[in-house]
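FAQ: What does a ligand-bound record look like?

Like this one, built around MU-OXO-diiron:
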Amino acid sequence: MNNELAPGVKWVGCVDWNVRDFHGYHTGRGSTYNAYLILDEKAAAVDSVKAPFSDELLENLRRELNGRRLDYLICNHAEPDHSGSLGAVLQEHPEAELVCNAKCKATLEKHYMTSKWKFRIVKDGDCLPLGRRTATFMDTPMVHWPESMFTYLPEDRLLFSMDAFGQHLATSGRFDDETPLATIMDEAKTYFANILMLYARPITNTLARAATLPVSIVAPSHGVIWRRHFPAIFKAYQDWVAFKPARKVVILYDTMWGSTDRMARAIAEGASADGVDVKTISIRSSHITTLAAEVLDAAAVAVGSPTLNMNMMPEIASALTYLKGLKPLNKAGFAFGSYGWGFKGGAQVVEEQLKAMDVEILCAPLMAQYAPDAAVLAACREAGGLLAERALRG
Ligand code: FEO
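The answer part, i.e. the structure of the complex:
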């Protein structure tokens, strides 16, 4: 396996082939925890790995250091998937300075016993001479936590971008030209939707700053390293932070006895205009991780639920809670669903949730008592047409 990003810059991270649940995120293709080592007059490691992989990281560092001392351990991000092995590295290399910003130090102090760690605090724009190279630091707050920062090696045009541009994707090849680009972009989009969508605004600022850096290689902390296709992921990030809508409609629903399912199908039929991609998603057959990625670039979203206990179905409530937290913007849509003998609750409660998400409501909730009749199904097809119209308008 080629793990060399540039002469003297190595990947020393770990591949987590079998992780399928990353704090609730369904990682269907596994993940990697990327750590790097810069060998110059000084030796500097960049980030660490999740704690269970500490031994593997230490072994990789021993092999690459080949007896050299480690001078610096740079921490770009304090989240435990990247900081979980800092202690193990510093235990083996007690002479190394832990390089991070002040917010990161404060966060690490909450997570770990740091009293013996030798911190070197850096600020935005600071430089750390390593020999032929100089590491420079750029604060990137809320990409993904308040303390997050990038480390840049101008001599190699190499950016260590931490979570930004990452993907939960386990591969044997380390670089973006060793795995099909469609697979990488699919996972990068899912990653952005589930981890970073909420922070679209601060990421917009970070992208503007990153655009001023000459880069040949971008090394995130998860997934493959960008050395050939960085313009593609950079452009995709620009679209995602702007919530640029695709000609896509998402119809999300749950059903009890098939009535809301029939309504969803009628809505999908009405939305199926030329050039419109319609995704009809039963919450019971799709994970919220996939749902978030589908909603990210959808122009229009309809959400359906039967009425259960004077409310929406719990799976729909869960999905909407998750989506509301991620704050997808620039969507239009409506609610739909069936009800029984009394309270017409499901669709109405869904509509309240859509309004709370600032979804532009295209029509009143579509409701069917017990089962949709021909008139209700016709109304569903007509409302589907509204979704298609919105998707085509962009
Ligand atoms: Fe991969 Fe925000 O940690």
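Follow-up question: can I read anything off the structure? Yes, for example: Residues 77, 79, 81-82, 144, 163, 221-222 surround MU-OXO-diiron (CB under 6 Å).
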